[in-house]
Amino acid sequence: MLMSRLGIALVLVGAVGIQPLAARADAGRVDISSATQSSLTLYSDKAFVRHSLSTLPSEQGSLTVSGLPQEWDHDSLDLRYRESAGSVTPAQLVWQPDGLDRDAIYRGMVGKTVELLGGGLNVPVQGTMLSYHSGLALVQGTNGRQYLVDWSDPQGIRVAGRDAMVADNRLVSGITASFTPAQVKQLKADNLQLSYVTPSLRFSSHYRMTVNDTDNARLELSALLNNYSDTSYNRADIRLVSGDTGRSVAYVRNRQVMMEAAPAAMDSTGERVGEMLVQKLPKGTRLPARSSQQLSLFHKDALKVEKLYALDVYGRSFSGRNKVAERPRLTYRFKAEADLPAAPIKLFEETSDGAVIIAGESWLTQTTSGDYAHLTMGEALAVRVERNLKNSQQQEKNLKNQWQAVIRNDQDVDVKLTLMERDSGLLKISDVTGATLEGARTLTVKVPAKSSREISYQATYRL
Question: Looking at residue 106, what DSSP letter applies?
Fold first, then answer.
């Protein structure tokens, strides 16, 4: 017989493609796309997914569930029937972790009818696959010829499976649950509950704060939802959870995703559930397969912010009596009117000609409603502090240092500086002039625009 060596790429053509399980009425088979109810709880590194499915096992006690994301934590799987008297869990759960495998599919075609397309063939050629190994297949055509098929050649002939192996979904990876005859007899309702954890769904939050010259700001909180899986979630209740779960897992992703139109913005940052902050997304929020979308969760206009300059000092680490010039860090402070989740934040400001620049980046820690949020943006440019140790007296049990400081403000607006003594051995601050003592270790001073202010105080340390 004549053997033709042709470069052939093996693919399954759409005409004989895999049909969704949800569209079939086979007993003991179900796809999660047919779930009567689904809920997604998204975290920064994973999602907890729950489905309610209306299905029963076959008479033999077998049930196959397909449509799960390719990546999910195997130890998180929970499948059971909910009954009035309790629940029924399968005696055994079996799955194929890697899903579709090319070599396994081609090996399964050996001895079965296939069809050769393209690669210079004028008409499709039917035949039988005689053997397969490492990307090479040998096909005996009904026309009497033999064809050596090389799947790695993109210009070669394509092979389509014509056997029922494809049409009856045996190639679809899924979970197979086995129930005993007694369990099947016990089932009174088709209320199947399935839950799992997957790293393929996650979200991240970020803030945007825009300030103006009147010390008012607009604060916006947005969430970026990512679905890296091949599974679409179109009818699910979705919740976002922020807080410290006590476990952080990093999953690396480098895939291109698509944008999906987002629902209208919300004006609530969620509710407290234990130590977590939970935000429920509007009904109708969709998570298509391999997509990303941005949602506006919260915004506050005319937020009153206070611009502070803060400098931490350690009195006993200062050596000699020479002056030292330091730059304080810029901090924005505002009172939270709602619970705010932790997230990175970008600060935007307008220039004199109306342009907008990123003036700083920081991290907003999780803040409880009624507390003050502090955003540290970095070192100041036009505010400087010169400190000088005027006198130092060491006594039997303590050390007294007399300090002088000059705060210079080259800005066009008044500034407020807080100077905090961080030395753990500080006993007290006394004899303060030119500033206000707040608490045991913090001094506050206001400096008018384009001017300077001198302060002095005495710090007593424990030896």
Answer: H
Residue 144 backbone zone (phi > 0: left; psi -120 to 50: alpha; other: beta): left
For residues 247, 252, 258 and 263, what is the CA-based torsion angle, rounded to 10 degrees?
10
Torsion of CA 328, 334, 338, 341, to 10 degrees: -20
Would you say 310 and 417 are in contact if contact means Cβ atoms under 8 Å apart? yes
State percent of the chain over pLDDT 90: 48
Q: Cα–Cα distance between 358 and 7 in angstroms, integer?
A: 55
**pLDDT grade for 26, boundaries at 50, 70 and 90:** low
Which helix (H) or strand (E) is 186 found in, with range?
helix 181-186
In this prediction, residue 206 carries a pLDDT of 96
Distances (CA, A) of 53 to 183, 235, 238, 347: 18, 13, 18, 46
> Could you count the other beta carbons within 10 Å of the beta carbon of residue 355?
8
Secondary structure (3-state) at 129: strand
pLDDT in tens, 338-378: 999 999 999 998 888 888 899 899 999 999 999 999 998 88
What residues form DSSP beta bridges with 326? 385
Q: Taking 70 as the threshold, does the pLDDT of residue 170 lie above it?
A: no
pLDDT, position 269: 61
Distance of CA 160 to the CA centre of its chain: 39
Sign of torsion over alpha carbons 147, 148, 149, 152: negative
